[in-house]
Amino acid sequence: MDLGSVAAIVLVGGGLGALAGALVHAVAVRLPADLDPLGAPVCTACGALFGAGGLVPFRRPACPRCGIPAHWAKVATEVAAAAIVIAALLLRGLTYWGVSGAIFSLLLLVILRIDWQHHLIYTATIVPGLAVALVAAALHSPGMLLSAGVAAVGAGLFFALLFGLAILLYRQRALGFGDILLAVLIGAMTGVGRVAPALFLGMVLAAAGGLLLMALGRRGRRDYIPYGAYLCAGTIVVLLVR
Predict the structure, then answer these.
(1) What Cα–Cα distance (Å) separates residue 139 from each residue in 136, 143, 191?
(2) Which of 20, 72, 125, 184 is found 20 to 30 A from 60 (Cα to Cα)?
């Protein structure tokens, strides 16, 4: 890939990714506020609408009601989304794997944001992602659709087993039902060949993150860890590089 192509991907892909990141942020603040997922972002302090200006990337506009700037996670999400699109196109090019990897990763970024901040996984974020993943697989080939379906069912059953074992052994839930649905989505996005590395990496990141937070005194042994966020992060890495 020549220097001009790289520059074009960084500029165009990064710009589109940043715009997608602004939309991801909007969904991530609207759903926990019990609003329709699509629309202008809302102020996390008072709930007021920012309007179209809240969708401009790389800026934190002041709330029209309370004057508090938009949450810092807005810019962080836009930077992450831009980096995802750039990485997908640089590593995979304008191919099925590059485009699907970018789209799937952006969908997972929505779930990551909400679970990290609010410890919730909404069905409204799982179902559209699952539909996109299955349609993309079907458009690619019947074999890809079969792989996505088998991986989705297998990942869901595996996490359902972990869910049941946690209740049996510890008399409490280590996972939520949303984590099981997320596993199904991850299986549909990755397919048979990549679902195991994606789930394994997510579990490793969750264990490492939990231990680090406990070492820093930010979490106790029984405190909640946003498991879904780590699963999303691990899957994004696998989608982009494997």
Answers:
(1) 5, 10, 14
(2) 125
